Fold this protein.
Amino acid sequence: MSSKISPLAPKSYAKLPPIEGLRIATAEAGIKYKGRTDLLVMLFAEATEIAGVFTRSKCPSAAVDFCRANLAGGKARALVVNSGNANAFTGRKGRESTRITAEAAARAAGCSEAEVFLASTGVIGEPLDAGRFAHLLGDMAVSARPDRWPDAGTAIMTTDTFPKYATATVELGGVAVTINGIAKGAGMIAPDMATMLSFVATDAPIAAPVLQSLLSAGTAKSFNAVTVDSDTSTSDTLLLFATGAAARRGAERVVDAGDARLAPFKRALNRVLHSLALQVVRDGEGARKQIEVTVTGAKSSRSAKRVALSIANSPLVKTAIAGEDANWGRVVMAVGKAGEPAERDLLSIWFGDTRVAHQGERDPDYSEAATSAYMKNEEIAIRADLGLGNGKATVWTCDLTKEYVEINGDYRS
Amino acid sequence: MSSKISPLAPKSYAKLPPIEGLRIATAEAGIKYKGRTDLLVMLFAEATEIAGVFTRSKCPSAAVDFCRANLAGGKARALVVNSGNANAFTGRKGRESTRITAEAAARAAGCSEAEVFLASTGVIGEPLDAGRFAHLLGDMAVSARPDRWPDAGTAIMTTDTFPKYATATVELGGVAVTINGIAKGAGMIAPDMATMLSFVATDAPIAAPVLQSLLSAGTAKSFNAVTVDSDTSTSDTLLLFATGAAARRGAERVVDAGDARLAPFKRALNRVLHSLALQVVRDGEGARKQIEVTVTGAKSSRSAKRVALSIANSPLVKTAIAGEDANWGRVVMAVGKAGEPAERDLLSIWFGDTRVAHQGERDPDYSEAATSAYMKNEEIAIRADLGLGNGKATVWTCDLTKEYVEINGDYRS
């Protein structure tokens, strides 16, 4: 938790209403940080259903292994999240730590260990001593309350400079349901599954397989379309909980992903995921600008996304934008190196509404002054049209500043 | 050309002897830089043979297009290189510029345009006005001398802080032959062909197809095994010239790549290429440390190289080393994200001679103090053993510092 808040932080935080069937508690366990909360517990009503997506890293954290195993059951009663230690690359000790935490959480929540979900974020490779916090879970379960979403957002922060919240209320079959979400990000952010940690909950009664299909689809254009530094975390975890409490207010349970009543819910969920993912970018380590990269005219949307990520992950593009330099030659470079079909002499590039390059050379009408003025903005949009097909993709990133280097040059010590 | 010289610059520069059949001239053409040379001409004796490798960018520069077309002929009489403007993404104007330059160079050298080779380095997207320097080529051809290798190295610099030279003398069939090379690098350096510009010459009489096979093989473990920032240039060009002048001293012409007499020459050429590539890394923008990344125990050497590059290109690994932090958890992350076969619980990691992680967790015998002391070194070696097979690869990179961001935040302006 840095003392300097990102200039891209929201002017005011979203107010998250309680979700029926869900209670929250946080605590200061002193795992690594002092004088701040670093432990979050969420408790869910019986029959709460769950979906999740995880890092594709070949070296996943112990908590990710644990969640993957439990996800098949589709039911959740407790979530325990700690910040300050990722419990990743901790071998047998890591598995022992998840076992102790899950046992304590199951006892506290009065459920089976198969209904417990865990997430850890922080330093990789340090054993996580569950003894530091397992004994706190019982009291936390007693004191947990539905109105503690703001506390939940801050307890999971690491190098984040602001907590990330999003909420939406929408009708499901004529009944109002709520979707709340929190996230943490900052560094080691690359789009190969949910970015670090995010937890989303709803009172809508939706069966786990339907939740999973909504979540997997929604991730592609939100968390999997953002990148801070191209470095995929060992711990990426995005969980979606549905307490089903709205059923008591007449909402019928949805058990089919093709159910027409889902459409507004799906759109609202996607808005929440998109908002959280963008907040992660806007709190990218050292970020001062948000960058939206759109690639059009690619051979396929898969190809478009690869080219967009090549641009978004290019250190030279990101430093140019940090320097407010409309250096579109570096966008050409990033298109060229992506390894995807591209034809130099069909390529056009825009910064905002200004077309700076067209069909393989500088646009003759391009105004350097207008483009330079545009680069002063906090939000920069880059578009590259490849002129080859109909493939299209948008990804989001932030600029690369000296502060990123500073933050990461002494994070562990 | 920065005023602050890299702390990794060589203590003294290699002294390059003349190569018979090769003359050099440089000039101040004022293309972009003032008060320094920015134009290099090399003139080669008749029957000089040539080999080359180029960027794999889909958006290659006009000079790269030009060289590729001429390479098939296998003969070279003139090389013209300018710094300050890459003549890349310049469309029809770019082709016009190479045409004018080649015409002037052919006239100056008394050769055909098919025997002229061109390279340009600098800003992308600005038209290169050949009228600024084409008229200088005639006088340069007259004044060119064999002993001007030091001038050649400085004329091609952009953000380089030191010129890059390498030389070797070796016997070929009982006759001493020389190999000289120069290179320029600094940023937009990623291993997908020669890194920006490098020119190597020898007086050995070796046929173009043999030269090409030596060069392609030598590139894999030199220029294609270094990365500064993962950004592949539009202009990467590595040319190898053989004047054949040593034939007059009794060296027999080599026309078969399997010729046993080639072995010492091949080793010497590889040493020259390796030295130049390492100098490029050591002059990486903002570099303060050289990093050698070795991956062993991979399923294949191709897989090992991909994992090694994932480590070498990770901003989090590079910033940790800039901060002298033995943050091996980030090496775990980079192995995990590489998309190659890896098993967390078989993975071991070394910093220098210290094994910091073993079989999926922190090495119990690992001394933080010893490792921290090691991180103060100027040259850092990281090894990751995947424990899966016999695949092995080594790549080289530099750390990521605030100076990299500074240099690239205002390069164009």
Remarks:
- Residues 262-282 of chain B form the longest helix (21 residues).
- Chain B touches chain A through 74 residues (CB under 8 Å).
